[in-house]
Every structure is written in C-alpha cells, then in structure tokens.
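Can't attach files on this board, so I'm pasting raw text. These are the components:
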Amino acid sequence: MLALLCCAALAFVSANADSLSHFERTYSPSGTARLTLSNINGTIHVSAWDRRTITVRANTAPSVVINDLLIDNDITVTVKRDFRLGRADFDVSVPPETSLILKNVMGDIEVRDLNGHLNVNSIDSNVRLIDVNSPSVDVKVTTGDIFFDGALHEAGAYNLQSFKGDIDVTVPESTSFNLTARALSENISLGSFLSNLSGASRGPKGVTGSYLKGGPRLILTAYAGRILMHKK
Amino acid sequence: MIMVCTQCQELLSDYIDGTLELGEQAHIERHLSDCEPCRAMRDDLLQIVHFSHRLPEHAPSAALWARIESDLAKEQPIGFKARAAAFWLRLRERHFNLSIPQMVAAAAAFVIVISVSVIAFRRDTISTSNTLAESMHVSPGQVQPLANPDMEQLEQQINQLSETVEQKKNAWNPELRAAFERNLLYVNQSLVECRHQLSDNPSDDVSQELMLNAYREKIRLLEGFKSF
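---
Top answer:
Structure tokens for the assembled complex are below.
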C-alpha cells in the first residue's frame, strides 16, 4: 500500500515537473541596455547585479510562447498573446543602469536596486520598487498597490498611479521634490512632509506644493485608494 | 458551477461591497461578463451606492426620544405620535435585508424626488443637461461626454475600442474575461464618482483632471485587452 502511494506521489511530482517549461537567455549588450519585457499572466522580479550581462529566466506553462529580440542595446522579451492565458513567472537580473519597460496584465511586479529609467504598465498587479535610484519612474496600474522606496533625482519625474490600490512612497527625509498628489477617495496622508510643503494648495482630493527646495516632480494619483508618504 | 441570474442578483450587493470570497467573486464576474441584464443591474446598484453615500442622516429629535421613553415607562396605550416614534425606533434598529428589486425601486423613488427638487432649485443657474436627473440615467459603462472637446474625443475612442473588445471577449479564457470585467468596473466606478463630483462642483479642477485621467485609463485598459 505504501509503495503504491509512493508511486502515485512520484507520478504526480513528475507530471507537475513536465507541465512547466523553462526559458533562459543571457544577453551581453555593449553599452547601457534597454530591456522591454511584456508578460501577460505571472510575476516579474527584476534585480540589479554587478555583472554586465542581462539574464532573463522564466518558468512557464507549456502553452506559453516567448519571443526575444536583441537589436544593438535594445532587448525585447515578449510573451505571445494568447486567450488561454498561460502563466509565465519571470526572474530577471540586469546591470543597475539598465532602462526597464515592464508590461503585464496580471501578476505582481518587483524591481530592486535599479538606477536606470523605469516604466511599469500593468492592469492587475501589485508593484514594489525597492531601493531604486532611477532618474525617472512611471507606474500605471488599474488594480494593485504601488510601493516605492528609493531616492529621487533632482530633475527626475516620478509618476505613480493606481485606480484600485494604495500608493505608498518612502523617500529620504532630506529629499526635495515638487508634489502633486490626487486621490478621489480624499485619503492623502503625507505625514510630516505636509508641514514643510511650501506654496501648497490643499484640498481633500488634492495636494500640491514644494518640499524643501523642490526639484523632482512627484505625481501620485489614486482613485479608490490611499496615498501615503513616509520619511526614510 | 454555472451561475444563474437569480443567484447572481442575490449576491450583487455583497459583490459591490467587496465582501464576497474570491471564489464567489470569480463566479459572479464570469456570469457578469456574459449577462447583459445582470450587468445593467450591477450598474444601477453602483449608482445607488454612490447616492446613498451622499444621503443626509436623519434622526428623530431628542424630545421625540424622550416622549418614547416616557410612553414606554407609563405603558400607556400607544397613540399616533408614539406609533410614529416607535416606527422611527424600529427603523433605526432594524437591519434591512431588502431584495435587489426592492432596493432598486426604493432608490428610484428617492432619486425621482431628489431629482425634481434639484431641478426646481437649480433651474435658474444650471442648464438642464447638467442636472442630477439626467446624470442618473447614465450607466457607469456609458458615461455621457462633458461639453469638453477632449472628453468627447476620448469618449468616441472608448466607444470604438469597447466595440472591438466586446466582439472578442467571448473567445477569452474565463479568468481573462473576469479580470477585464473587474478592472473595467473599477474604472467605471471612478468615472461615475468623478462625474458626480463635477456635477456638484463644475469648476473643480481636480475632479476635472481626475475625470480626464480616468477616461485615459479606460482607453489604456481597453487597448490592453484589445489584442487578445
């Protein structure tokens, strides 16, 4: 009986292993690269490392087709659109200065330690940006929380928008910025940043103003969710 | 499990409140993606929820409560005033469990009364096209264009994209369809909210900006799903 159960378990494990495909590519751009990754259903984790190469790995459902293209320093990795919605979970390692364009329909997105430009465009995703030091960040999701913990560049633009989720921003206390915060839910909490906003217009749905000497443009837009700001 | 309309309609209120479990939510979204009457009912309920948030709270006066207490203490036969007070008391303590048609009918009656009042009150200052009565006839999925060329253009683009997506979505995986419906619902809720805030205060720049942005988001959403 025990042997029978073991056989059944082994068969189950091997069947599951067979049901996943693996994708892996390593690219060696000659200069600062731009990576565009378009997924449909699944997670995207990107972290910076100290190598000059870019590695893209994914575990996917067998039905998923991934196309990739390298032209000069532009790398494009695309999950082919298919109404079956097969899952693909990506794990990507890039040099810190890489510019990233991440697109998804469903599945959480996490980016760590990036210094390059960052653009995230998804429908149903929680987005976590951790220790980012990017000159520009643009995140748009329909559903999902956006968490930003990083630094702002002096002439940078940082645009975070969610229709159904919270926007949570943590920046160093000494960071200057020009803030435009809009929340249809009338739920904006700027913590101690609020008291030092100059030239501020403050309404229940919107706050604009400069913190310290201004500079980077920080634009936060939430509809059915909160805007929260914290000092690091 | 296939959900029928009656089951869907029983759960719609909880669905809008966001209190359903994930499985039930997925079932209802699957049904909504295929059922126009239930979608229309969902849209009506969304309107009701929106307006119910704006209703003033009415409570009987302190004097009335004092009389109720006094009546109860004396255990006298209940007169007309006390019956009215008892009615308020029951109303206050009662947990309403109305069916959806009852809710819709009650809300419709309320809205008609409010609309007539609003029209009468604002007749001199606001054109008829902007009245609450008319805005109430707009379902979240078909938000009327404002008199702003940008918004009209966006609205046209949305209508074209919606037609394309509607034609394609029957072939989609149910999970994809449910995701589309859910996200479209959120954007439409935001559009309805923006529209009502603008209706209350047409010069509110923030609402105007949020509304334009919500239109753009609807386009982004539809374009994202158009290619499936």
